[in-house]
Amino acid sequence: MTKSLQGKVAIVTGGNAGIGRATARLFAAEGAKTVVCARRIEEGEQTVRDIVDAGGIATFIQADVSKAADVKALIDQTVHLYGRVDCLFSNAGISGNPGTPIVDLEEEEWDQVININLKGVWLGMKYVIPVMQQNGGGSIINMSSIYGLMGSHLQMPAYTASKHGVIGLTKSGARDYAPDNIRINAICPAYIHTEMVDGPMAADPQLATTIMGLHPIGRLGTVEEIAEAVLWLASDKSSFVTGHSLTADGGLTLG
Q1: What is the pLDDT of residues 207-224, one digit of tens each?
Q2: Could you tell me where the DSSP H helices lie in 178-248?
Q3: Could you name the domain of life of the organism this protein comes from (predicted)?
Q4: If we measure between CA atoms, which residue out of 204, 164, 63, 77 comes closest to residue 123?
């Protein structure tokens, strides 16, 4: 059976842990030469070792997605190594400090969250789209959230604003670059078992009960479930899908 990303080159930002790591592994298992990008070197290189040990092809490139020079270098180095870029999963992101209302939010935190979660997505598109135009097309998947579709239950104004912005940017890019055969979509998970979620839940049983109760399906999602959704958007199986925000939320947004 032909693998869904056979012969393609994919970049995963925030590939050092959680959804990013699971997606990088899956991309490689499906035949992609996979570039794992992260700020944390040791964890990013561990993802690469996992892929190589499983028989895949992968490289680690350190980058801070909030810095234009880093993102440009990431794309340039990928092209130098593998000759092209077919898929970019802009997954890197931070939550900020949940429980901080707008009036108490510090400018420094606002800037940090927006710069990584939204500016980082824009920079990825800015530098990869010209490469994809030369390739004859490609697929970009941007990490949004259920809180790109609704207000947060946990007072996360900067995070919520950033994820709404990702959806707007995704739609804008999808319309502009569809004629170039570049598909741009967003993924909108609910609460997923990751370091970002499991740590606070373990520290606060009441918070854990609240978060669990938000999901009609009765549980949180897994990183592997989100990786499968991202893979579908990256592959030719979703060839008629662009500008879409794919919600994987266990029913949370049903209200």
Answers
A1: 889 899 999 999 999 999
A2: 195-203, 205-213, 223-234
A3: Bacteria
A4: 63
Q: Is residue 120 part of a domain?
A: yes
CB-CB contact of 220 with 193 (8 Å): yes
Q: Please give the C-alpha separations between residue 77 and each of 11, 56, 72, 81, 142, in angstroms, as whole numbers.
A: 11, 19, 9, 6, 21
Q: Kindly report the length of the chain.
A: 255
Domain count, the chain: 1
CATH number at residue 15: 3.40.50.720
Which of 127, 147, 159, 191 is an active site residue?
A: 159
Q: Is residue 176 part of a domain?
A: yes
* pLDDT-based confidence at residue 140 (cuts at 50, 70, 90): very high
Q: Is the pLDDT of residue 89 over 90?
A: yes
**Closest Cα to residue 93, out of 74, 116, 71?**
116
Q: What are phi and psi of 239, to 5 degrees?
A: -65, -20
d(CA 143, CA 121): 8
Identify whether 159 is a catalytic site residue: yes
pLDDT at 198: 87
H or E element that contains 90: strand 87-90
Domain that holds residue 144: 9-194+221-254
Does residue 111 form part of some domain?
yes
226 pLDDT tier (thresholds 50, 70, 90): very high
How many CB atoms sit inside 10 A of residue 173's CB?
A: 23
